[in-house]
Structures are given as structure tokens and as C-alpha cells.
Design goal:
Length: 53
């Protein structure tokens, strides 16, 4: 879990779940890029912040 002094503390799994609640974004990304690029990008940033702190 990412600890922050402000904002929400959510796990990577919760972040994935939240992103999966946007089917229109997912479908548009897959149509345009062949992958759910928005989710991939956000999770990459999540990992970088988690391991960089």
C-alpha cells in the first residue's frame, strides 16, 4: 500500500479494479492501441511512485 500524507491510500489491486470500471476508455484504448494503454500507463506510474518513495 502506498502511504501518503494527503489523498487516498489505495493498493495496486484497488487501482486496477478502479481502472476496470471504465469500459469505454478500455474499449477505445484497445481499438486505438491494441492494449488498455491508460491502465498500463497509470499502473507503471503507480509502480514507479511506490518503489521510488
Amino acid at each position: 500500500m502506498v502511504k501518503r500524507t494527503r489523498g487516498y491510500c489505495i493498493s495496486r489491486e484497488e487501482t486496477e479494479y478502479i481502472l476496470d470500471t471504465f469500459p469505454i476508455v478500455r474499449d477505445n484504448d484497445i481499438k486505438a492501441y491494441g492494449t488498455y494503454r491508460t491502465k498500463d500507463t497509470i499502473l507503471a506510474i503507480y509502480d514507479a511512485m511506490r518503489y521510488g518513495m
